[in-house]
Design brief:
The complex is a heterodimer of chains A (279) and B (98).
Chain A: E1 3-10, H1 16-19, H2 29-45, E2 49-54, E3 69-72, E4 76-79, H3 82-88, E5 93-96, H4 99-106, E6 118-120, E7 124-125, H5 127-136, E8 144-149, H6 159-175, E9 181-187, H7 207-219, H8 222-228, H9 231-237, H10 245-254, E10 260-266, E11 269-276
Parallel strand pairs in A: 1-9, 2-8, 2-9, 3-6, 4-7
Antiparallel strand pairs in A: 1-11, 3-8, 4-5, 10-11
Helix pairs in contact in A: 6-10
Chain B: H1 3-13, H2 17-25, H3 27-31, H4 38-45, H5 49-55, H6 59-73, H7 77-88
C-alpha cells in the first residue's frame, strides 16, 4: 500500500519566479513564506514520488489536439517551454518520472477504474508544474507523475469530475503495492483573469469567490464546491479561475479537510496555499 | 466558424523566437498555411487584437502572443497591458468556445 505523506496546493503564477528572487516586494512576502512552508512540508514528508495535478497552458496541448486528462508516463521528464524562458525567465529543467506509479493510475492493458486518460511518454511540463517544483523541490531529484487537466479550453470537465478524478487517484494509490511514500502537489488559481477585461487589476477579480473557495478546502466541503463551481460562475470570476478545480482533485485525494488553507492577497489576487499532512 | 483556427495560429506564433520573428516580419507568409476567413486573416495580418478578441479568440492565448510580441519589440509591460485593455474593453466578454 502507498502512504500519502503530504498533499500541497500552491500557486504557479510564472511572474513569481523573478519577483521572489532577491528583495521580495512587500505584497509578495507572505507568498514567499507560503512557498517556504510548502517546501519544508515536502522535505519533511520524504516522498519517494510526487504526483502532480496541474493544467497545461497551451504548451503541450492546443486547439489542434486537446486532452481532457492526460498522464505523463516516462522515465525522464523535461520542463519549461521556449516562450516561458523568454517571457518569464524560467530555467529549463529535467527530472525523473515514475512510469510504474503512472501505470497504477492509468492502467496497463485497459484503462483503469473507468477513467479515460490520455497519456504521453514524452511529457514536457509547463510553468504549472515547473514553478511549484522550482520553489518546493529545486533539486528536481524526486520522480514525478504529471497529470494534466484541461481547465483552459472548453468543454471543461465538471467540478464533479475533478472530484471523481481525485477519488480515482486515491484509490489507485491505496491499491498500489510497492510501499511508496507519495506526495501530491496541485497548482492553480483562485479568481484570476488573463486576457479578459479584468487582467492585471492588481487585486482579486472576485474576492467573494476566493473566500468561499478557500472555505470549501478548509472544511472539506466538496459537495458544496461541486454545486457552485459551474461554468458560468467560474467564468464570472475570471477565465483562469477554472484552475481552482485542480484543488478539488487534491482535496478529494486527501479525503478530508485541509490542515491549513489560505488565499494570500497580493497583486495577483489571492494566491492559494492548501496543505495536508499524512492522510 | 473557424475561431478554433485563430487559436491554432496564435499557438503556432508563440512557439519559438523564430516563429514570433517570422510572424512579426512576414505575417502574410506566415498565415498562408492556415484556412481562415477574410476577416480573420485581415485581423491577424494587421495584428488587430481588439478585433480578434471580439471574434472570440481565446483571451489567454491572445494575450500570450500580445505579450510575446511586446517582449520582442521591447515594449514595456504596463504600456502593452493598457493598450490591450483599451482595445478589448468595448467588446465585453465574447464567447470563446470553439
Amino acid at each position: 500500500m502507498t502512504e500519502l505523506v503530504a498533499a500541497l496546493g500552491v500557486p504557479h503564477t510564472p511572474m513569481l519566479w523573478r519577483l521572489l528572487e532577491g528583495d521580495v516586494p512587500p505584497d509578495l512576502r507572505e507568498v514567499a513564506v507560503g512557498f517556504e512552508r510548502a517546501r519544508a512540508l515536502l522535505s519533511e514528508a520524504e516522498p519517494d514520488v510526487i504526483v502532480m495535478v496541474a493544467s497545461d497552458h497551451f504548451h503541450e496541448f492546443n486547439h489542434a489536439n486537446m486532452a481532457t486528462f492526460s498522464i505523463g508516463k516516462a522515465d525522464h521528464i523535461d520542463g519549461t517551454h521556449r516562450n516561458e524562458e523568454r517571457s518569464f525567465g524560467l530555467p529549463t529543467v529535467e527530472m525523473p518520472g515514475h512510469p510504474g506509479l503512472a501505470e497504477a493510475i492509468i492502467g496497463r492493458e485497459n484503462l483503469a477504474g473507468g477513467f479515460d486518460f490520455s497519456f504521453s511518454n514524452n511529457p514536457v511540463l509547463d510553468h504549472a508544474y515547473v514553478v511549484p517544483l522550482l520553489f518546493l523541490r529545486p533539486e528536481m531529484d524526486i520522480p514525478v507523475v504529471p497529470i494534466h487537466t484541461n481547465t483552459n479550453a472548453p468543454p471543461i470537465p465538471t467540478a464533479q469530475r475533478f472530484v471523481e478524478l481525485g477519488r480515482h487517484i486515491r484509490k489507485a494509490l491505496d491499491q498500489h503495492d510497492e510501499g511508496l511514500r507519495v506526495a501530491v502537489i496541485a497548482s492553480g488559481h483562485l479568481a484570476y483573469d488573463l486576457g479578459g477585461p479584468n487582467l492585471f487589476l492588481g487585486r482579486s477579480t472576485d474576492p467573494g469567490f476566493d473566500a468561499m473557495a478557500t472555505g470549501w478546502i478548509r472544511r472539506g466541503e466538496l459537495d458544496e464546491a461541486e454545486m457552485v463551481c459551474t461554468f458560468t460562475r467560474l467564468t464570472e470570476a475570471g477565465n483562469l479561475t477554472f484552475q481552482f478545480l485542480n484543488f478539488l482533485t487534491l482535496a478529494a485525494i486527501a479525503g478530508r479537510p485541509a490542515d491549513h488553507a489560505e488565499g494570500i492577497a497580493c497583486r495577483f489576487g489571492h494566491e492559494p496555499f492548501y496543505f495536508w499532512g499524512p492522510s | 466558424m473557424s475561431r478554433g483556427m485563430i487559436d491554432i495560429v496564435l499557438y503556432d506564433i508563440d512557439q519559438t523566437i523564430a516563429s514570433i520573428d517570422r510572424f512579426a516580419t512576414d505575417p502574410g507568409g506566415f498565415l498562408d498555411a492556415y484556412r481562415l476567413t477574410e476577416d480573420e486573416r485581415r485581423a491577424l495580418e494587421t495584428w488587430d487584437y481588439g478585433s480578434l478578441y471580439a471574434m472570440g479568440a481565446h483571451p489567454f492565448l491572445l494575450f500570450q502572443v500580445v505579450r510575446s510580441l511586446a517582449v520582442r519589440d521591447g515594449v514595456a509591460m504596463p504600456q502593452i497591458i493598457e493598450q490591450y485593455r483599451e482595445a478589448i474593453s468595448p467588446h465585453g466578454a465574447p464567447d470563446y468556445i470553439t
